[in-house]
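Quick one: co-fold with protoporphyrin IX containing FE.
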Amino acid sequence: MVVSSSNGNAHTTDSDRLRAILRRKAPVWRDDTSSHFVLTRHDDVRALLADRSLLKDPANADPKSPMSKALQSQQPEGLIYRTAGDSILMLDDPRHSRIRTPLAKAFYKRVAAARGLVEEAVGRILQELDGRECFDAMAEFCIPVPVDVIARILGAEPSMRGSFRSWSADTFEAFNPARTPEQTERQVAACNNLCGYIDDLMRRRLKVPEDDLVSDMMTAQANGAAITDDEIRENCAGLLVAGNLTTTDLIGNGLWLLHTHPDEKKKLLEDAGLIANAIEEILRFEPPAEGAARIAPRDMEIRGCPIKRSQVIVSSIRGANRDPEVFAEPNRFDISRKHLPHVSFGGGSHICIGAPLARTEAQVAVSGFLRRFPTAALEDATPAWRTTLPGVVRGLSRIDMHM
Ligand code: HEM
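Sure, here it is.
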């Protein structure tokens, strides 16, 4: 439930109120249903995420924990390619840094040169909307932009963006331990299609390299980088999936926030230079990824609370981002806020590899949309938050607007 205060400027959910209580009364809280420890204070979350001695591979987690069970259930029957086992998101050193180092080197080089490509994608998609009086901004704008951009960076055919989007959403079901048999069937089909597509792309680029990330990775491998075909395939598929779902939510959450806070929208329309700061405030206020987990490598203590080896500790990104000790009036959305040390991209050795790309895309997309449709308004002030994977990812299922 979203509640607006009388000044219309505060969006606070019931779980925000619960996290505020936890921050004060139980900053290291053991959730009895999952047996995970949950941190909600900004300083604790930051320290946890930055601690490179902690683990991430669910194989190292308590087998009774949902994290470990989720991993086991991530390999349903029918998968042609092994998935999850090679993804940097869930690996510990030395494999994590062996794979992340060449991937990050090639990816950051591409991202540094991607602004023109992002501007072109945003311009083209806005052009397609010219003359339309009303549309669902999620479906017609927030979804196509990131999938178009990441497909072009990888070297995948942008004409396949519809398939990439649905494969990404269905692949993400791997993180849903309560999925139905039909969802599992879709997950398996999506993984097979996505990995099969990347596999084919890798083979084509090995023969004839082009100007794209898959070619860069095949060339790096040929030049001696210690990375296998399976590792390249799974992590390129991971970039395609991670590169569109969360960024779509960032752009969508941003459009939603700005159109429910007319004064903030006005500020941005009057001063385009505020866009970078506005995106940081959107990331703080409505983070698309709500938590990030770590596994205790040894018996340890946080704030005097004993935690045993292999127990899972979840940092509440959303909780940390609304800690009043760090952010004055944390439930107020204010794009000119000066101090914004949010933790929406995680931290330490697992810090989001896509953060610079997500920032560029969101800045270009949100400012482009406002410039093109300065008088756009919401059809309905009730937000359509998705209800799948609560506490993991947060975004809207649709944003109906008239121009
Ligand atoms: C607004 C958009 C995004 C958000 C909020 C987000 C958030 C996150 C978070 C919270 C993590 C976990 C960090 C940790 O455990 O400390 C993460 C990891 C990751 N993200 Fe993102 N992400 C976004 C966009 C992207 C994009 C655009 C890409 C790629 C194109 C990407 C690729 C990844 C990868 C590969 C990892 C795993 C890194 C590792 O474990 O070493 N993300 N992201």
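If it helps, Confidence is low (pLDDT under 50) at residues 1-10.
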